[in-house]
Amino acid sequence: MRIISKYERVSFVTDSWVMVLLAMGLSTASVAADLTVLDLDQPIRPNFSGSWEKDFRRSDDWEIELNRTIQQIQREAQLLASQSSGRRFQSSRGNGGNRRGRSNVVDLARLAEFISRQPTITITQNNDEVRVEREGDAALICGIEEGVMESFSSKHGREVCTWEKRQLIFEISLTNSAKILHRFTVSSDNQMLNMVTSISSGNSTPFNLIQVFQRYDAPPDEFNCEQTLSRGIVCSQIRPR
Amino acid sequence: MCAAKSDHVNENFLLRKIAKAISRVSFHAIFLLLLASCAQTSVRTVLPPIEPVGDVVLVESSEVPTENLQLEVGVLVFDANPLNEDDSLIGDWIFEEIVQNETQYLPYVLRNTLVESNQWGAVRVLPQEDPSVDILVSGTLVKSDGVTLDLQIQAVDSTGREWLNKTYSDVAGDLDYPDFVLSTHNNLIPPNSEDPFKDIYEQIANDLLSIRARLTEEELVNISRVSQMLYAKDLSPETFADFLQQDPDGTLRVSRLLASNDPMLSRVSEMRFRHHLFIDTVDGYYSALYEEMKSIYDLWRLYSYEELLEVQIGAQAINPSDDYGGSGNFLSLTQSYNRYKWSKIYEQEFNALAVGFSRELAPAILELNSRVHGLTGTMDEQYDQWRIILRDLFALETAGQEDLL
Predict the structure, then answer these.
(1) pTM of the entire predicted model
(2) ipTM of the complex
(3) How many beta-carbon contacts under 8 Å exist across A and B?
């Protein structure tokens, strides 16, 4: 049995460290080559980009959610009624009311379902903006900067967006005092996307609908298309690598 | 056949006049409506409404004007009001890029109108102020879209006399656009089609002409002499500093005259001639850009016109009585959301077209900036370099001659 001298041990340990450091250096170099340059002037935002498909099992069923909300409203109403013993109950929120200019929770729930039907969404994100594409609806586009940004405005409504910690928020104000709020969050492993749609009208209690999306690998585009003015949309086939 | 064509032209002219008259009457209403709407390529500066120029006939000369009247005109690349950060929406940068392209294109339309009038000497588009021309026309693009063009125009002669300082406006209607159906493939408006805002340029040209008509022959001669001395002073400020004098009203006049056979004067004339060759070349580049850009730009304006009409129609469609039984029920909510959604989709498609427009123009703009061999940088920077080269050349050629003056 060969006894390793102290010198050899030191040398072996040193060599091992050199190898480890060298390997780390090489792997760091290859990782560094893949990393995008960090712009310290830009706020760091979670990465939402990718193709997402709805996980129906984990997402809210709008009818169940509607029943739950109605029950909650009824409970609150009963509580208020019992507190105001004898006095005629007057709801300040008017959720059950059907007065002009306000919507009842059933209408809000139906609208939430109407605007959340897309089974898939595609999100692209770069250093300037994040773009949420939904089939059959206008894209939700927001900048990366701090503060509230106006992303669209017309006679029919106004859309603002902002970042709140790790959440991306869009608020749409329609002309008939209805407000639609979309809150996007992405899981830390970037595999799951949460989209909470909150709809309110006037000062009513908002109706919330949670949708969960799973990341999926969309087939790569075969064509690279560009919009031109004189020739319409021009596409060229992408060569396989 | 000719008679039939002439009748058709007259009919078109009459229709245009009627359309212009209608557009003038409804101008304020349209203005308020469009102000409230999202005018895409507008520079988004809210200004009081400007009365449109209406239907204008360009005053043309059938004969070449006399030498004194042949003032050389330089039309500067226009300025644009910067986009107001507070008013701008995400993605508006693309419209700023279009405005930048327009600032190089629209001066050439004015230049062509001045040439067409046959009332002036050489007319050129210039990237920056030039001391060798008699009249310098500068402009700021206040608003530009398919319906409205507002230009703030200033014209100053070499003596410093202000000819124009006015904001012009023109409103286009259906008849200002060629009979053309937009399709998804091969959209190109015929290259010889008239500019939908040609009246605005013709009005500017006519206004310049009316100012010139008010000047005496002596004043016109003075403008040419001052231009020559200003150019000489630009070449060698030390040598020609005391050849010009400022009058109490702030205008310049020539205080000393050199003999017509003076060698220094002939050197200046030679340099000026070389300089004019250079600015003719520069003007040629703007001409190439104009030719390249015209059909695509006409198409862009037609899209913009259609888009603004769409916004107008959409705004008119908002009628509270259309709601199904009040503003709070499901049908009313979905109706409201759909209106919002489609207005947004339409605007996003328009933005995509704007990107396509800039993408198609990019090679032409790049070519404009890279065509002068030996000089580097943008057209503006090359122009500076050229003037420095001429100054150095002049200093070399006239070394030791200054003492003779």
Answers:
(1) 0.64
(2) 0.75
(3) 135
